[in-house]
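Worked Example 4.2. Consider the chain below.
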Amino acid sequence: MTHYLGYIHRYYLRSYLYTAPVLFLFATLMIVYSDSSNHVLQSYSFGGMWVFLASLWLAYGFTNLEHPTQQQITVLHMGSLQKYLVGKVIYAILLGLFAAACSLLYPILLQRFAVSLTVGKMSIAFIENISMALLGTAIGLYFTQSLIAKKRTAVLVALLTAALAVSSEQMVRSLPLPVHVIPWLLPPVSPIVAVASQWSAFPVWQHILALAWGFIYTAVLLLVFIRTVGTRTFK
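Applying the procedure from the previous section yields the following structure tokens:
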């Protein structure tokens, strides 16, 4: 597995597929933290939304990195399709965690907060940004050519998915109460950001449930990818 991660890392760096999403992430972070008077959790929550988008973009580029023929060769070298898919997921997660680390460290290193950070606030920000990174990564992996052959279609579906994920909470706010469950069935970016940014407005159990649901949603997506979707590449 270590050899595969080293190989795919060198392959990915030479592709420069990371350039656009990384530049996008830093551009949005510069805008988010341009005002140092912003509330810590609100800023980190808003930054977490951009981490989700950047992680999805990174995973989308990475999932189609290798040519199908090269994928077959890599699987043969690893000796197992499952090991190959797990390795692919691990590297994609590392890309997402890189995006989360940038979001967490950027305002600290540049001293963009007017108030001192507490352990509690940093813990909330850490968990939320990691959740957003993993969620974006899990979704981005699904836009492989084995599922969506046309690149234009994949991009449009990815954009639609991202738009629904980040705006679902606002879209259903004026609709009847039973419809309010929809944002939690879609990738729950919008409700997690809403809960994490208004810590004092919600009971503790709701915060725990929201953050836990993000990790559960991600775990299900990754498990389905490894067990079913990923194997379609080789059928």
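The chain has a mean pLDDT of 81. Residues 2-234 form one domain. Compare this with Example 4.1 before moving on.
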